[in-house]
Amino acid sequence: MIKESLFAAEEREAKLDRLGDVLRAMERHIDFKALAAEIDRAAPRPSRERGGRPPFPTELMVRALILQNLYGLSDEQMEYQVLDRLSFQRFLGLRHSSQVPDRTTLWTFRERLTAAQAGDALFEAVNRQLARHGYIARGGQIVDASRVPVPRQHVTEEEREQIKAQATPADWKPAERRHRPG
């Protein structure tokens, strides 16, 4: 039987720290507040005159963009991974939040940086800060596991018997003869 604990979440986080969460280590070497301030200067936030949902903080979005780039994730996969991965939630400061940036929010932020030509400068600044501490950012990849239905061949019992007898059913078309045993 699996032991349940009221403190399971805290215990898992402590274990992540003991195992050496790479993202926690990154936090010690990168000044995300300074990066966010630079982004807001180079690519100011759009006006909120028309209302709408308040935007996520720039620092959070900078962190998300760095994660996305490090792991080579699409906007859709980034949204999923933030919802799914404890280490991503901790890195983004969303551990106890019910809201996470969705794919459109990620795309909009990246477009804001692209329009201001600030994207490359962001990653160069991250690399400089890491290099100052003797590190380099080496991108990885999260393999996207998915399920795909297996093509099914519908062979009748009569056809199966003919195949066993080393005969090909007469009503099979040429394409069926090429793709089915017999």
- What's the rounded overall pLDDT mean? 85
Distance between the termini: 50 Å
Please describe the biggest sheet, giving its number of strands, its sense, and whether it closes into a barrel: none
* Helical run tally: 10
| Number of extended strands | 0
Low-confidence segments: none
| Cα shape | elongated
Rg calc = 26 Å
- β-strand percent reads under 5%
Q: Which percent range fits the helix content?
A: 55-70%
Helix/strand order, N-terminal first: HHHHHHHHHH
Given helix and strand content, the structural type is mainly alpha
Concise synopsis of the structure shown:
This protein is about 55% helix and about 0% strand. It is mainly α and about 180 residues long.
Keywords:
mainly alpha, 0% strand, 182 residues, elongated
How is this structure best described in words?
The protein has 182 residues and is mainly alpha-helical. 57% of the residues lie in helices and 0% in strands. It contains 10 helices and no strands. The protein has helices at residues 8-19, 22-29, 32-42, 58-71, 75-84, 86-92, 103-115, 119-132, 157-164, 174-179. Helix 5 packs across helix 6. The relative contact order is 0.11. The mean pLDDT is 85.
